């Protein structure tokens, strides 16, 4: 933050943000004076509020109303006044003590639900891209003559089902043979490595192909052509914010959530989080859309082998209770990182 506020200005800003978070209503100088944090008259406090407005930290939404924080004001408040205490950590450890990573998809579901419940907002987890996960098992189940259900199980316990079109000449025993070949040859490889090695094999064995290799090539080509190995977005708690005053226009909120669930926006958030570790906060205009100017996001990436593979966070009104939300998001990301590490050590093995 480039602008440094005086102690008095910081105190007034803090009172305004705290009260606005609690009430969602503009805050007047009389209220600030009554809190007793500053032994100043309402007139003196009005002067300080006028200075804060000139500097871009608060605005007066209506001529006869008090002030509300701007995005800049919220960010200053977060940078200056929020710290994680040991009590926060102990309380969160109790909340998450029963969490385990036996099934990672189930774990992500539980975590997004817990984030929503604890913050009274929307909790979300963006899962790792499937092609970065390590293969444990693959199976093909024929549904009809030219359609197969492919079941991919990763070392982390994520199960991915997809429909695949195949040539009718490929029989059930061919599918079993291809699955056995892939499971034996590529177990403990990432799906991206599986694809790359299969492409190389197809090129190298072009002139000397046996029957099994030919079936593997046919099935694999369809597998990777039809596959969507992108991240999954798991959301819980939309009902927590639907009734908030900021979202009387529910269509704006629905548009945002639709864009988020369709992954384009979520991938942008993930990419921004991947550039650096730590909690990141997106407030109002940071989100890049007028339709969501009243929203705030608090996010943090989680890691595997010291690399960012996904992110989680909370979506809520930009007046959300940051002193509560930030420690929750921060601690939860550390929990996922540690659980993924315990699940199987390095490389999930």
UniProtKB/TrEMBL annotation:
<dbReference type="InterPro" id="IPR023120">
    <property type="entry name" value="WHTH_transcript_rep_HrcA_IDD"/>
</dbReference>
<comment type="similarity">
    <text>Belongs to the HrcA family.</text>
</comment>
<dbReference type="GO" id="GO:0045892">
    <property type="term" value="P:negative regulation of DNA-templated transcription"/>
</dbReference>
<dbReference type="InterPro" id="IPR029016">
    <property type="entry name" value="GAF-like_dom_sf"/>
</dbReference>
<keyword id="KW-0346">Stress response</keyword>
<keyword id="KW-0175">Coiled coil</keyword>
<dbReference type="GO" id="GO:0003677">
    <property type="term" value="F:DNA binding"/>
</dbReference>
<keyword id="KW-0805">Transcription regulation</keyword>
<dbReference type="Pfam" id="PF01628">
    <property type="entry name" value="HrcA"/>
</dbReference>
<protein>
    <recommendedName>
        <fullName>Heat-inducible transcription repressor HrcA</fullName>
    </recommendedName>
</protein>
<dbReference type="InterPro" id="IPR036388">
    <property type="entry name" value="WH-like_DNA-bd_sf"/>
</dbReference>
<comment type="function">
    <text>Negative regulator of class I heat shock genes (grpE-dnaK-dnaJ and groELS operons). Prevents heat-shock induction of these operons.</text>
</comment>
<keyword id="KW-0678">Repressor</keyword>
<dbReference type="InterPro" id="IPR002571">
    <property type="entry name" value="HrcA"/>
</dbReference>
<feature type="domain" description="Heat-inducible transcription repressor HrcA C-terminal">
    <location>
        <begin position="107"/>
        <end position="326"/>
    </location>
</feature>
<dbReference type="InterPro" id="IPR021153">
    <property type="entry name" value="HrcA_C"/>
</dbReference>
<keyword id="KW-0804">Transcription</keyword>
<dbReference type="InterPro" id="IPR036390">
    <property type="entry name" value="WH_DNA-bd_sf"/>
</dbReference>
<feature type="coiled-coil region">
    <location>
        <begin position="192"/>
        <end position="222"/>
    </location>
</feature>
């Amino acid at each position: 933050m480039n602008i440094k506020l005086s102690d008095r200005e910081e105190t007034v800003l803090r009172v305004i943000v705290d009260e606005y978070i609690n009430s969602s209503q503009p805050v007047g100088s009389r209220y600030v004076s009554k809190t007793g944090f500053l032994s100043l008259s309402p007139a003196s406090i009005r002067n300080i509020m006028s200075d804060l407005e000139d500097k871009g930290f608060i605005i007066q939404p209506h001529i006869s109303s008090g002030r509300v924080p701007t995005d800049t004001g919220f960010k200053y408040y977060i940078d200056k006044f929020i710290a994680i205490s040991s009590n926060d950590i102990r309380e969160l450890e109790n909340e998450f003590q029963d969490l385990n990573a036996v099934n990672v998809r189930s774990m992500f579901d539980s975590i997004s639900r817990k984030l929503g419940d604890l913050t009274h907002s929307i909790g979300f987890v963006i899962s790792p891209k499937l092609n970065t996960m390590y293969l444990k098992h693959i199976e093909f189940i024929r549904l009809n003559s030219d359609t197969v259900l492919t079941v991919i199980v990763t070392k982390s316990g994520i199960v991915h089902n997809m429909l695949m079109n195949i040539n009718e000449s490929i029989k059930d025993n061919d599918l079993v043979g291809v699955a056995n070949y892939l499971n034996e040859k590529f177990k403990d490889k990432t799906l991206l490595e599986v694809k790359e090695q299969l492409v190389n094999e197809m090129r190298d064995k072009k002139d000397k192909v046996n029957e099994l290799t030919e079936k593997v090539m046919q099935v694999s080509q369809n597998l990777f052509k039809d596959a969507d190995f992108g991240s999954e977005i798991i959301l819980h708690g939309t009902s927590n914010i639907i009734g908030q005053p900021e979202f009387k226009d529910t269509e704006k909120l629905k548009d945002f959530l639709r864009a988020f669930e369709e992954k384009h926006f979520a991938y942008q958030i993930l990419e921004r989080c991947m550039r650096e570790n730590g909690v990141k906060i997106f407030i109002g205009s940071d989100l890049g859309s007028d339709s969501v100017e009243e929203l705030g996001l608090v996010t943090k990436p989680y890691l595997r082998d010291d690399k960012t593979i996904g992110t989680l966070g909370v979506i809520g009104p930009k007046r959300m209770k940051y002193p509560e939300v930030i420690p929750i998001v921060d601690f939860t990301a550390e929990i996922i990182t540690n659980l993924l590490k315990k699940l199987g050590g390095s490389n999930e093995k």
